[in-house]
Write a structure and sequence with these properties.
The chain contains eight helices and eight strands; from the N terminus they run αααααβββαββαβαββ. It has 276 residues and is of the alpha+beta class. The relative contact order is 0.12.
């Protein structure tokens, strides 16, 4: 869609009152009717227009979209075409369709009190044990690495946190985000990093929810700096590394995370690659 549409919706990122989505729908219609895209199926045009609107903040994670009937009437498409576009976005985990309640923007966490990748299983085999995050440092990293390759960034903000699991053992999280896009994270009070869920911070303040992620797991000897932060001897300094590549709108990379988990600890529940 053209830049005029994106710029117009960008100007509407201030808090909205009920009923103000009408202006956004009018802009959706203009994007759909753009002659430059007349060769594309109408449901594909609507899908692209909705993705662009989400990318610039017309609706935020958890927001309810107008009804299918209202969208169809406002953008000049049939109800079936609108349903086809919304169904596709729901299958891509961008939207959530709840029968009898409507269509909502995905990206909000279903368990805000639980760190998503630290779901260690209790002795009963079903409950989760409590975890507590302690921020260790926050710095700008300019050297290359798998994080910069994935994010396509020349400099990254690295947030390191030690995660205490039920007062039994510690894990280490190294979380990387683009320093240019998310530079404001450097200004937030450091103490906030002890308790904030970073993916929710990115969704709330930067309109960059994590819609999906790719996960890789491997066993290895931990580097010396990891052993030191986890207070492990060299003999015990090995375990599992969980590498997480997260994506936001248009499957754009948003964060890179390494989680170091010592050997011989509790079972870990691996989350779905489509966070809620």
């Amino acid at each position: 869609m053209d830049g005029n549409f994106l710029a117009a919706v960008e100007a509407e990122r201030e808090p909205r009152l009920p009923g103000e989505s009408f202006t956004v729908l009018e802009r959706l219609r203009a994007a759909i009717e753009d002659p430059a895209h007349r060769d594309e199926p109408r449901h594909s045009r609507l899908r692209s227009a909705l993705l662009n609107a989400l990318a610039v903040g017309a609706w935020s994670p958890g927001d309810k979209l107008p009804s299918e009937t209202e969208i169809a009437k406002s953008v000049g498409l049939s109800l079936g075409t609108v349903q086809k576009a919304l169904t596709r976005l729901a299958s891509e985990e961008v939207l959530v369709r709840r029968h009898g309640h409507g269509t909502f923007v995905s990206g909000a966490s279903a368990q805000p009190d639980q760190l998503l990748h630290f779901r260690f299983v209790a002795d009963d085999g079903s409950a989760l044990v409590p975890v507590y995050a302690e921020a260790l440092d926050r710095t700008v990293v300019r050297g290359g690495g798998p994080w910069s390759d994935f994010l396509g960034a020349s400099s990254c903000i690295r947030i390191r946190r030690r995660i205490n699991v039920a007062d039994e053992f510690d894990c280490l999280s190294e979380y990387y985000i683009d320093a240019e896009k998310f530079g404001a994270v450097l200004e937030m009070p450091f103490r906030e990093l002890h308790r904030v869920i970073i993916r929710e911070l990115l969704a709330k303040y930067f309109n960059a929810p994590a819609f999906s992620f790719a996960q890789r797991v491997y066993a290895t000897d931990f580097p010396a700096h990891v052993r030191s932060l986890l207070k492990l001897s060299k003999a015990r300094g090995h375990g599992m590394v969980l590498e997480i590549n997260s994506y936001t709108h248009h499957r754009t990379p948003i964060s890179f995370q390494n989680i170091f988990i010592p050997a011989g600890v509790r079972r870990l529940e691996i989350p779905s690659p489509h966070p809620r």
